[in-house]
Amino acid sequence: MQIQTVGILSPGDMGQAIAAVLNQNGLKTIAALEERSDRTRQLAAAANVQDVGSLKQLVIESDIVLSVLVPAAATEAAAQIAEIIGNVGKNILYVDANAISPQKVKNIAQLIESKGGQFIDASIIGPPPRVPNRTRIYASGKQAVELQQLRDYGLDIRVIGDEIGNASGLKMCYAALTKGLTAIGTELLIAAHRLGLDQELWDEVATSQAELAKILTRSLPSMTPKAHRWIGEMEEIAETFEALELTELIFQGAADVYRLVKDTSLGKETPEENNRDRAIADIITTLSQEALGVNSPESKVKSQG
Known about the structure:
By secondary structure, this protein is of the alpha/beta class. It contains 13 helices and 8 strands.
């Protein structure tokens, strides 16, 4: 099958960047922006994504539908598309590129295939692909080779087998390392700040763990506006590890850290509002001050005062 039109679910930060790359390289992208937010509409317009209104029209006009959503929305979106596939009788390719567990992606594959669609498991590793050679899209499943057509339109597509769940499993393990490490770094830096030891700790890390200091300096400023999305991702990793008879508690804790960040002023910023040049010390100070729990030393002092 020749891919000529790609339906994007949904043109948020990652989906919009993928669409922009495809459009710049001559492929048509469309989205169903009915009842979508002004921000999503603006992002779609900036990437020249054409609005077709409804999900039904998206299925009718697309050769392939690419789902790039928050983890919690993945199953519902797939169920909606599956129902439309069944109603219109179109054998369309559905690519789930969400950060979800292998178990969940297999269930979604059954939804799509039961209605006559074809399914590809995919995972995105790296930032939105605005800079060449920094973002990889891994794909698995019997139809995964079809997705390699998008290599001709600017995306780095890597097929890693015929089994549904391989691509999602890779994402779970990789994000457990990268975003899990960011969560641990965030919490321990807040702890050091509340102990009055933030400068001493950072000086030691910068001296004895220089590479780690560089990673945290790069990852923390860009993490804060994404924390609300990463909660679900950590929960998906926890589910994946539990199914493998490994502890899920580490990643439930990481989800709690991102839940803490989400409710701060930094967590409520959009990626467009985010200042990636913020100093780590300023970020940690803000998070520490705005995310005081009932068990924190500061809150206990206030309650006793």
